[in-house]
Amino acid sequence: AATKLASAEKLMYFCTDQLGLEQDFEQKQMPDGKLPVDGFLLCVDVSRGMNRNFDEQLKFVSNLYNQLAKTKKPVVVVLTKCDEGVERYIRDAHAFALGKKNLQVVETSARSNVNVELAFGTLVQLVDKSRGKAKIIPYFEALKQQSQQIAAAKDKYEWLVSRIVKSHHEVWANVSRKMQPAPEYQDYVYLEGTVKAKKLFLQHVQRLKQEHIERRRKLYLAKLPQALDALVPDLDEIDHLSRAKAEKLLEAKPDFLKWFVVLEETPWDATSHVDNVDNERIPFDLLETPAAEQLYEQHLEKLRDERKRAEMRRAFRENLESSPFVTPGKPWEEARSFIMNEDFYLWLEEPVYMEIYGKHQKQLIDRAKEDFQELLLEYSELFYELELDAKPSKEKMGVIQEVLGEEQRFKALQKLQAERDALILKHIHFVYHPTKETCPGCAGCVDARVEQLLGSRFIRQHRNPLADPNVDRINLVILGKDGLARELANEIRALCTSDDKYVIEGKMYELALRPIEGNVRLPVNAFQTPTFQPHGCLCLYNSKESLSYVVESIEKSRECSVGRRDNHLAQLPLTLILVNKRGGGDGGGETLQSLIQQGQQIASKLQCVFLDPASAGIGYGRNINEKQIGQVLKGLLDAKRNLNLVVSATSALRDGAADAADLRVAMCLMCGDPAGADEVLLPILQAQPCRPAPGGGAAVL
């Protein structure tokens, strides 16, 4: 209870943690060693202490207060440990203070930091009357206010952490330095301390890591069905296997390492593989997780369902083929009740069996039309006396239908009367105008087959026929997308003379180039113009897209020329060339090999020559080989001569101006030997052209 203290050259302590560690903290000495006391905080522990009687403590406090009161200094009673306080003790302490004059009581908790500043502030106000009177708040109300304050500060601090910390690799030392100037960080540390601030940071980092792991897990699980489809697409291979044997089977697959990675350490989410975002292969130990096991079972079920659906589709087709109720042209609505059963409805969706029925109907209709066409040929005498304009009267159509009406092949098209009548009119038109275009054989017409066989034969063979001295010009189409055609045309022109002349085997030829890079249906991009008759075409590609452009352009150009008597584009010699991408380099080996394989397949389909970079030496970023481009042009020149001969010989045979012997002579010229001529000629002469004989009768050779 002394009010004047003396302790010269003593250090000031701000916390008991500094005891024994004075050198680690800022050292301040007591001023002059003298310390006057201005007031007292009389502390009362209201918690339930062991081996301690609260009544005795209160008696001691009462005696102590009597001593303090003699000093005439202000006194504030502080109830401590209220977070563990006993209600009776608190009530008795208030009763004690109430019996004293102007004795104020503050309920505190140092552990929760509740009302601690209020206790000192209340005493300061009693010492310095000029200060405003502090409002004393009960412990639980103050605790509620502080909890709200801490919660608000925590929310702001967590927002700050989430804004600054974006990676689970961040460390506290670096992040705390970044956050120190922020008021959100300062307020929370002031209220809760650095330890709790670091704890919240670590929780956030752990949450980021778990989110990252979960994203990787979802990525792997999304890829797992694709891997199973690629490695084990056959149900018979895995249906009888246990999970362990199925995993062994997966490891034995050639493409296993393309889809999976076997880690030395497990589990995968505790290894560095988690952070290897460039490696999207599935950790093999992921298959042991319940989610992966479920996906494997779903893969098995999918394969079983696919097999069952395939069996149902096959059974449905067999049912259609065996049913007498399915006739050409019968709508699905009429046939449904005779065809469907419960299994079909259970395993097949409506679009599926509608598609199958549609394909079956098409087959039925096509077969019925072929049979009906044969029927019309058998009754050819019905069409002899028609007018030359081939427009039969209603009476004549009635007679035709009456004669044919009892035939089953006529009745088969009873639900397709409009198409049946159209076939009759088309047949009449063919009788009076027999051409390739009106022939009911369509693509099987022998006239068309003759030209196709001859043309394809001599596009493939680039032998050297007798030189034609009149050939002195080569018209060359260069087809390529995205500048390929123009660039190659410029390189070829660089090899020509100043007046676009090119020397082949010592002879000068005029070389006309037509680079095309757009839609060939447009006149500006047409292969053939009134002033340009192409003798050959160089087709350039360096990617899958440019190869597709070449194929589509060739098909479009041929479609545009169908029906024309001078249809030379169908036999136009083609050379498909794979060129390198701009900027040089051969690209990736796998990509180059893939482009070569695709080019070879297209060349086989188009019946044309294929040149790859290794054989042709043609590519951007290097000089073009004059010898090699000369060989390409020479081959096109040979094909041009052969094509002229084929067209002349075929036309002569068709018009009756030549017989088979004449044609064989022409074949010998083109093939270079009689055996090669017979190889081409025999299939043509063995065919049966559909030509009505003079005076009627069935079609004859």
Characterise this structure.
It is a single chain. With 701 residues, this protein is an alpha/beta fold. Among the domains are: 38-137, Rossmann fold (3-Layer(aba) Sandwich); 211-308, no CATH class; 323-433, no CATH class; 467-582 and 589-649, P-loop containing nucleotide triphosphate hydrolases (Rossmann fold, 3-Layer(aba) Sandwich). It has 25 helices and 13 strands. It has helices at residues 54-69, 87-98, 116-127, 139-164, 172-179, 183-192, 194-231, 235-238, 243-252, 256-259, 290-322, 332-339, 342-347, 350-378, 394-404, 408-411, 417-432, 446-460, 484-495, 544-561, 589-606, 613-616, 626-655, 660-671, 674-686; strands at 4-6, 34-36, 40-45, 75-80, 104-107, 260-261, 282-283, 473-479, 501-504, 507-516, 536-541, 574-578, 609-611. The protein has a six-stranded mixed beta sheet, sandwiched between helices. β4, α2 (87-98) and β5 form a beta-alpha-beta unit. α4 (139-164) crosses α6, α6 (183-192) packs across α7 (194-231) and α23 (626-655) packs antiparallel against α24. Residues 460-471, 618-623 and 688-701 have low confidence and may be disordered.
Task: Report the CATH architecture of the domain at 467-582 and 589-649.
Answer: 3-Layer(aba) Sandwich
Give the total of beta strands: 13
CATH superfamily grouping of the domain at 467-582 and 589-649: P-loop containing nucleotide triphosphate hydrolases
Mean pLDDT across residues: 81
Read across the widest sheet, the strand sequence of neighbours is 9-10-8-11-12-13
Total DSSP helices:
25
Low-confidence region ranges: 460-471, 618-623, 688-701
CATH class of the domain at 467-582 and 589-649: Alpha Beta
CATH topology of the domain at 467-582 and 589-649: Rossmann fold
Radius of gyration over alpha carbons? 50 Å
